[in-house]
Structure formats: structure tokens, C-alpha cells
């Protein structure tokens, strides 16, 4: 087993190889180890940089897990904790896939119900926000629902990081096809994307998008949605433009 210093040295070397896309060519990322888990802290320019950084260090020998606390600084206007928390809650309330979930907000150390479950209860989600970081807790019925909740948080204005601690009950085995299913659900939820025109394939945590759209903005939005999905390590965008 390599020493902690060796692991950190190799992790720093791995980060230097990341093809960063944000404003900073080499962002300041701080690393520390805790019981074999490598914790990433600092700021990066985009969700692409955040995902790629975590994926690169995950392959380092001696790293048992990666805890990604990197924050995205993409130029978005900062919002207050309450406004961000409320925005995430609103997205969950409006998502048809969470219509049977109990939604709660963590406000000043207290949990306040926002909506009780409608019909047959299918889990609960608690939303907290601090300094642009959204934390989600609770339990839902599938990995796709867990991942969708995380993407809805990312879609909320002012969100810089999502810590998704939602558990799935009963537990499911996570595989590539679970990532594909989650992204398809995300694309169907995104009002700016026609999911029927896009095909999704996942292999080794790398998502490939195929199909066609009518403009570049939609093409980029579909790719951005893929980067937001928890568990994705890279995205290949083969979507073409068609008038």
C-alpha cells in the first residue's frame, strides 16, 4: 500500500493532466486523505472540470474513494442560501417523478416540510444550502431518481456544488445501464431538450450521445445535462445539427 504522501503526489500529477475547459487552465485544487478517501476542495471553472478532476484522481493507486467538494465558478450570479434552497425545492415539487415524495427544507437547523407525499408515498428528500453548496438527503425508489434529484439541484441558479447523500431503498446495483436510464430521465425532464431525438449509451462510465437537434444551444445543453449526472466520468457528444 503506497504511503499517503505518495498517493497525494500521484493525485497531484493526475490533476495536472486534466484537460481543463474553464477559465482557469490549472485551478487551485486542494487534496487531503481521510481513511483512504481522497477529498478534493477548491474551485474549478465548469462542471466539466469538476467531473474530470474527480475521475482522474479516482484512478490513482491507493485511493479507495473520492469525495468531490469542488465548487464551480462559472460566472453565475451568486444567490442567498434561502433563495437557492427554495429554488431546488421548487424544481423537486414541479418534477412529475417526485410527485409522491415528501419534500423538506433544512432551515436554520430545523427541518420544515414543504410538501407531504401525494398518494402512495415513494420516499422523501431534504434540501439544505450553504454558500452555493446544495446538500440532498433522504431516500428514493431508484438510482435514476437519486441522480435526477442531483441534476435538478444543479439546474438551480447559484448552485456551485451538489452533495448528494440520498439513498435508494431497496438498494440497487449500480451499472452503466443505470447511468443511461438516469440520463434519459434527465433529458425527458429538461424542457429545452427533445429527448426523443437523442440516444444515450454508457460504457465504463463514459456517456456517448447520438442523434440530432436543430441548434447548437440544444446540443450543448444535452451534453451539459450528461456532465451533471452523478457517476459520469466523461462525455462524447456525437449529436449532429439538422435543420
Give a short synopsis of this structure:
It holds the Pfam family BON. This protein has 243 residues and is of the alpha/beta class.
Strand content: 25-35%
Q: How do the SSEs run, as a string of H and E? A: HEEHEHEEEEHEHEEHEE
Give the overall silhouette: globular
CATH second-level architecture of the largest domain: 2-Layer Sandwich
Figure out the total of helices.
6
What are the segments in which pLDDT stays under 50 over at least 5 consecutive residues? Answer: none
Which fold name is given in CATH as the topology of the largest domain? Answer: Alpha-Beta Plaits
Biggest sheet strand line-up: 5-4-6-7-8
The average pLDDT value, as a whole number, equals 94
Indicate the structural class: alpha/beta
Percent helix, as a range, is 25-40%
Report Rg: 18 Å
CATH class (first level) name of the largest domain: Alpha Beta
Q: Note the main sheet.
A: 5 strands, mixed
Key words describing this protein structure:
32% helix, Lipoprotein_DolP, Alpha-Beta Plaits, 4-stranded mixed β-sheet, single chain, 5-stranded mixed β-sheet, Histidine-containing Protein, Chain: A, 6 helices, 32% strand, globular, 243 residues, BON_dom, BON domain-containing protein, alpha/beta
Provide the fold topology.
Layout: H1 4-15, E1 29-34, E2 37-44, H2 47-58, E3 65-72, H3 81-94, E4 102-107, E5 110-115, E6 124-130, E7 133-140, H4 143-155, E8 161-168, H5 176-189, E9 198-203, E10 206-213, H6 216-228, E11 234-237, E12 240-241
Helix pairs in contact: 3-4, 4-5
Commentary on this structure:
- With 243 residues, the protein is an alpha/beta fold.
- The protein has three domains: 4-72, Histidine-containing Protein, Chain: A, CATH 3.30.1340.30; 81-168, Alpha-Beta Plaits; 176-241, Histidine-containing Protein, Chain: A, CATH 3.30.1340.30.
- Helix content is 32%, strand content 32%.
- It is built from six helices and twelve strands.
- It has helices at 4-15, 47-58, 81-94, 143-155, 176-189, 216-228; strands at 29-34, 37-44, 65-72, 102-107, 110-115, 124-130, 133-140, 161-168, 198-203, 206-213, 234-237, 240-241.
- Strands 5-4-6-7-8 form a five-stranded mixed β-sheet, with helices on one face.
- Strand 1 (29-34) and strand 2 form a beta hairpin.
- Helix 3 crosses helix 4 and helix 4 (143-155) crosses helix 5.
- The radius of gyration is 18 Å and the shape is globular.
- The mean pLDDT is 94.
